[in-house]
Amino acid sequence: MSSSPSTLAGVPAPPAPGTAPATPARGGRQSRLQALDGLRLVAALMVCLYHYAGRGGPVSASWHQTPAHVFPTLSQAATYGCLGVQFFFVISGFVICMSSWGRTLGDFFRSRVARLYPAYWVALVLVTAAAVALPVVVHPVRPDEFLVNLTMFQQPMGAHRVLGVCWTLWVEVRFYVLFALLVVVRGVTYRRVVLFCCVWTLAAVVCRTSGNALTDQLVMPEYAPFFIGGLALYLIHRFGSDLLLWGIVAASWLLGQSNATRGLWHPGAQGDFHREPWVILAIVTLAFAAVAAVALGWTRRANWPWLVTAGALTYPFYLVHEHLGWFVIRVLHRGLGLPAWPTLVTAVAGMLALAWLIHRFVEKPFGPRLKRALKRTGPPALG
User: Fold this and answer.
1) Rounded CA gap, 144 and 10, in Å?
2) Which of 71, 114, 132, 167 could form a disulfide with 367 if both were Cys (CB 3.0 to 4.6 A apart)?
């Protein structure tokens, strides 16, 4: 057998089109990257802090005043917590590329359905029940809209959302579909992922000026750079550094920080909450840098078992924390008179505890069952 050609850095060249290496170039079977689990929880807590102390709207009614007055210092930092969403998207690009390697389209479909839907359905029921019990915090949606929410397609259908955060799930679903149809269906390889990243980047840039609503929905120019950056960082993790991959990461960072700044910063008066463009830039940079540190292996020593638990709690916590947290704040702070800081800590801890219960009694038993059921009933064409 002839030896494979190498790059200047000594990293094996990418595999031929249509093939996938049995093991990563760094050698051995891929182990779980616990640091990614920790980063996912950090991103979720950023979003949680934003929803509890960094914005106005319904949470102001729960606090009985704007969070900027309840937490004068904390609110100035919490208003940047919404960037946890962009952080999630970088991590998602990395994880989806990693988890889809060597899988068929059917495997990919079943894993995403089993991962997303069980906890999501339970969160819908819990939030709806709370809205019926205490409608002054969040009004319950109509029965027909609740049923549409079960599909996770409520946003394109124009139905009211039960979960405020589910708009990000619609973004994720579109990313999964793009990646599945353009990469996974033919088998995930280095060249196919690189081509996907390059074409998607170009399409996202063009869509910024096209003004076409359909292409905006399909290409997602506002969020594409974050997913693309995560995909390229996984290739760096698997195959090692090279100029092309770092160029994709750099382009993704440059475009991503521009999109985030344009979306979250506006000159002039901002009321209770104001964001500085340089802080937005710094947080986006840190998000890319954190995932890059994982890709380069700098976080290998972060292999504490509790990080796996943290990662498992992230998705159910993300689903339930917003509306149910507002209910907890209203009951404890306005109803029982608990001071602001203990209320905030209790709300976060309570949502983490609820997330553990959902993971333990919903995701762990029913996720694998759903995957097996789909395996038995899925058409042969999906693998």
Assistant:
1) 59
2) 114
Q: Give the model's confidence band at 17: pLDDT under 50 very low, under 70 low, under 90 confident, else very high.
A: very low
CA 191 to chain centroid, in Å, comes to 25
CA proximity to 152, closest of 112, 182, 179: 112
Q: What is the pLDDT of residue 377?
A: 64
Measured CA to CA, the distance from residue 345 to residue 142 in angstroms comes to 33
- CA–CA gap between residue 104 and residue 89 (Å, rounded): 23
Q: Which of 164, 126, 123, 159 is nearest to 141 (CA)?
A: 159
> To which residue do tokens 């946890």 refer?
84
Give strand pairing partners of 6.
12
18 strand-pairing partners: none
- pLDDT level of residue 208 (50, 70, 90 thresholds): confident
CB 220 within 8 A of CB 263: no
Tokens of 269: 């008066």
Q: List the beta bridge partners of residue 182.
A: none
Sign of the alpha-carbon dihedral angle for 335, 338, 341, 347: negative
Residue 227 near residue 234 (C-beta atoms within 8 A) = no
User: For residue 30, which of 100, 105, 113, 114 has the smallest C-alpha distance?
Assistant: 100
d(CA 341, CA 336): 14
DSSP secondary-structure letter at 274?
-
The model's pLDDT over 331-348, given as tens digits with 9 standing for 90+, comes to 999 999 999 999 999 999
Give the residues across from 12 on adjacent strands: 6
